[in-house]
Amino acid sequence: EMLRGFKTEIELHHKKHQIRAPGGIYFSSVVLSVWDNIHGPKMLHVWTGDRVLDEEKKLVTVANFTLNDEAGRSQEGIETKFYSLPKHGVIATVFVFSLETSRGDRMKSDRMKGEKDVFSFFLILPYSEISEYLARHTFCQEKIEKLLDDHFLVHLRKLSSERAALVDKVDKVINEHFSNQLQRLVILMASIRDHPVPSPIDIKQTFFGNTYDISKQSSDFLKKAITSHLQTGGYTVVLGQDSESVNMMILTLGLFLTSKEQKTSRLLCPPVAMESQEGVDVCCYEPGLYLQGYISVENGLLPFSKSQLEDNCMPSTIINMDKQEVWVFNINLANYIRERSERIRKAEEDKKAARKKFFYKDSEMTQYDDSVKLLDSSLVRVFLEEVQLLPVNTPGIIESYTTQFIRLLNLKALALVKYVEAELKVADNQLYQAGEHLASALTLSAASATAGSRLNVSSLMQNLSIESDGDLRVIVIKAEKIRPKTCLDVLEQLEAAAQVLQQFETL
């Protein structure tokens, strides 16, 4: 009986933190726990909002779920799990990882060399929010994994040689590096919850809601905005001094996103200042959000840094509602994807060097560049011409027509994927057969280089009835979501030729 009481005391002996966010924090509780070889799962730190929504014993139950099968864990990296616990009225996203933390600890407890401590970091939400959360699960997972890797694991590893208790080391890292960054993430998730893009979108709140709004916005400007939005995979930032026009543009572009992508978008929200030892304001822009709006700043500067834009998985469209201008950050899509893949590869090889590249410089602003030539899309042009002919007062007709347009793009993207796969398979077979008859490795290498352009883009566009390079880019970015690396296979030659032509024109 005495041991049972002692065990419960150890499980509940943890540091408590309170996180404040406008409208309340997104998660009801956030918990860091570790496996103890004597007492089992042991909670170290618990973060809650202004109201404590979860009883401590419920947190212990979830901690048991997350760590009971992880003793002796040998898997490297961070593993993500999702638990649905309707009996307890909660859902939990769990991040499990192991770390060799302290030689001093091991010598003190006589642990074997190479033994690792197993941690779990989990987020708890009410079970009633399961559908809303699952739409944002991938986005949240990427942010948490980056948060743990950059602001917890890297600092805890630095303390591995110190002769101190594990709990003391974790406390030091949490207080000096982690809690501040966790609050940033909590504020971000709260802003998405409090300023959501509704699903479905009311057509009356968009520029398609009445003919006056369409004529009020330059038809050429709206065409450029939608075209560029589709050509960058739906990743668009809208800027302006008038919050109503910014939100109306966001909702208009939101019609071209899936329901899941709409859930990972955000209407215009004011910057949120966060109290911290460093006195740093939370930067509103966040890579990974599809649509997001901000109040524009003076002097033609963007309210975020170039490094933040580069951290996004796709190039971003920047729309200035005040000047009615559209700008694409890094229009060369194939180069952008290749360079980002190279940065990620280097990040795996050298975490420290890569981490410096990915750090955001809040004071660094990006100069607006309106010299980039956007590619026109006949698909979008015809769509807008036909939308303006539809009766505005008939409920659902514009929504249905927009849905049909997106379905058409998806079908074209699927056809393109099948075409590319078939063409590359034929090209690879021909190269393999040619290689069998080549005596010299040098000749084989030359044959491979010749076959580097294995895909004839002109034939592809002709066979799939794609009229322009702008239409091709719209369809390819849709195809990229179905089959990764499609952009590299299709656009690499096209963009290389365009760069050569541009250099020739400047001479």
Name the descriptors.
alpha/beta, 18 helices, 6-stranded mixed β-sheet, 4-stranded mixed β-sheet
Write down the secondary-structure element order. HEEEHEEHEHHHHEHHEEHEEHHEHHHHHH
How helical, in percent, are the residues?
A: 40-55%
- Round the Cα radius of gyration to an integer and report it: 26 Å
Number of strands: 12
Tell me what portion of residues adopts beta-strand conformation: 5-15%
| Mean of pLDDT | 78
**Sheet with the most strands?**
6 strands, mixed
Description of the molecule:
With 507 residues, the chain is of the alpha/beta class. The protein has helices at residues 2-11, 56-67, 103-109, 130-158, 166-194, 211-216, 219-231, 243-254, 259-263, 306-310, 333-349, 351-358, 378-387, 397-436, 441-450, 457-463, 469-482, 486-506, and strands at 15-18, 29-36, 40-48, 79-85, 90-99, 117-126, 236-240, 291-295, 301-302, 317-320, 325-328, 366-367. It has a 6-stranded mixed β-sheet with strand order 1-3-2-6-5-4. Strand 2 (29-36) and strand 3 form a beta hairpin. Helix 7 (219-231) runs parallel beside helix 17 and helix 11 (333-349) packs across helix 12 (351-358). The model is unreliable at 1-11, 103-112, 273-281, 352-365 and 438-452 (pLDDT under 50).
